[in-house]
């Protein structure tokens, strides 16, 4: 049958063959790019990320360091020197908001890294590790669900303070850029967050275990390791990425709440939550002090939510409306 | 049904005991005791104080005579949550004083969320892909992703500083100047959440055959939407309503703090800062209890609303 493809009488147009073949992730990427809101959110977030790094490294963008106090320009509105005004101690709000952004991004990404590691490990362990592990995890998640999230975060934050443990102790940061108090906040928020992801991964893995292609791989004699890592894990990644993206704004929100009630990073560090908390004291004197960090929090959370919506639609076409 | 409710109520007991145990050990893992805050307390006085509040002796011991854990659990079994270390009042009294305010605030915000969210969702779904729909979806997205206290800040800046319509401090039932802002800022997030769910469910229901039948027989559109479609579309809203109400009652502490409202939330935040063990554990248990009861109520009403579900 060597004749078939070359001597076909029908002249198939060339462009049919020119269509680029895309894999699962390539298709998802194309779907994401078609979602304008998600693209805009992604662009804004990239800008925020770049600017937050630049403000810390290039002195020209951040003319005043975030902790520098100038008592001659207390509570000023926006001026040429201070684009967003100053706070009650004459600190540059522009610089302080960028410091807050950096901290919020670190907290968002840091907690979700921990959540990813623990959630994947425990979820997969529960799904694949037999009945006892599964029961243990499920009872523990029940317990965690009975606990109000924010209360658990506040209590964990209190438990982790004033320890001389590695990584979270006071003094010089043991991880560059992550001082002890920041790691404490990240740990406290991640402590609550991983449970949801573990449940998600467990559910995904349990249903994947029954699918035909996993059965097929089993019947062909694939090793357990191969089945888990090259068949099941990649297929759980879609929902996991979506959950992680939605987890980032939740973590930023949790930090803002902690800062607002005074359990976040100690002064003079400016996290977005502590900035709102400071601004709240002076909102009648200087509305800029509270409006600026509030807008920053809202912008960060909105962007991550839009991006999460876009990713969800892109990675799971079945749920698309 | 009665058997199911009794089973569920009984299963709450081990859950609450587990919450109590977990809180107990977490609280005792917090570095420093409640009497370490003032450095001037003489050691002898501190010792006496610790004896009074059951804070002396081993935290946990086996066999567990004299351990703090045992003392805590035994008094818990008697419905006694102990004394608040800071205020020197029974914890139950403090909670009883703050609870009405928190429940009022939570209920008002819940009703606001229900009315606004469902209306927004129905209007969006009926005008699918029209300007009203886009407006509704936009409000819902903003509401879901802007934290309640940030919203409160914006509302204060606009309605208090610019227009002077409302007060910023306190809560008073039936006094609109003190009710509107806390209610709206707390209720906006669940309202947005309800709107999203209602819209999705309405879109689903509006495509059903019985809706087409109702329209085909010439029924008025308002009646079709409200009587035939909304009834079925609201079942998914009902499922999330319980956890949301529980979340409003337990999650109101930020709003309570913003508006200086003397409810349970303010009590809890202050208690953590002062390491007031008894009060923290009392509040957490109360919250866990509220969440458990709300979940139970939802499951029961769900069974009533959807006759296909049997327990």
Concise description?
The complex is a heterodimer of chains A (321) and B (311). Chain A is built from eleven helices and no strands.
Explain what you see.
The complex is a heterodimer of chains A (321) and B (311). Chain A is mainly α. Helices cover 67% and strands 0% of the residues of chain A. Chain A is built from eleven helices and no strands. Chain A has helices spanning 14-18, 24-34, 36-57, 93-128, 131-146, 149-160, 180-209, 212-219, 224-260, 272-281, 288-315. Chain A is globular and about 75 Å long. The model of chain A has no long low-confidence stretch (mean pLDDT 79). By secondary structure, chain B is mainly alpha-helical. Chain B folds into two domains: 16-28 and 40-80, no CATH class; 96-305, MetI-like fold (Orthogonal Bundle), CATH 1.10.3720. Chain B is built from 13 helices and no strands. Chain B has helices spanning 2-29, 43-52, 68-77, 91-126, 131-145, 148-162, 176-206, 209-216, 221-233, 235-250, 253-258, 264-274, 277-305. In chain B, helix 4 crosses helix 7, helix 4 runs parallel beside helix 13 (277-305) and helix 7 (176-206) crosses helix 9 (221-233). The model of chain B has no long low-confidence stretch (mean pLDDT 80). The interface between A and B is large, with 41 and 46 residues.
Order of helices and strands of chain A: HHHHHHHHHHH
Stretches of chain A where pLDDT falls below 50 for ≥5 residues? none
Per DSSP, the total helix count of chain B is: 13
CATH architecture of the largest domain in chain B: Orthogonal Bundle
Shape of chain B: flat
The largest chain-to-chain contact, stated as pair and per-chain residue counts, equals: A-B, 41 and 46 residues
Here the CATH topology of the largest domain in chain B equals MetI-like fold
Radius of gyration of chain B: 24 Å
CATH class of the largest domain in chain B: Mainly Alpha
Number of strands of chain A: 0
What's the Cα radius of gyration of chain A? 25 Å
User: β content of chain B, as a range?
Assistant: under 5%
Runs of chain B with pLDDT <50, length 5+? none
Helical percentage of chain B: over 70%
Shape of chain A: globular
What is the overall number of helices of chain A?
A: 11
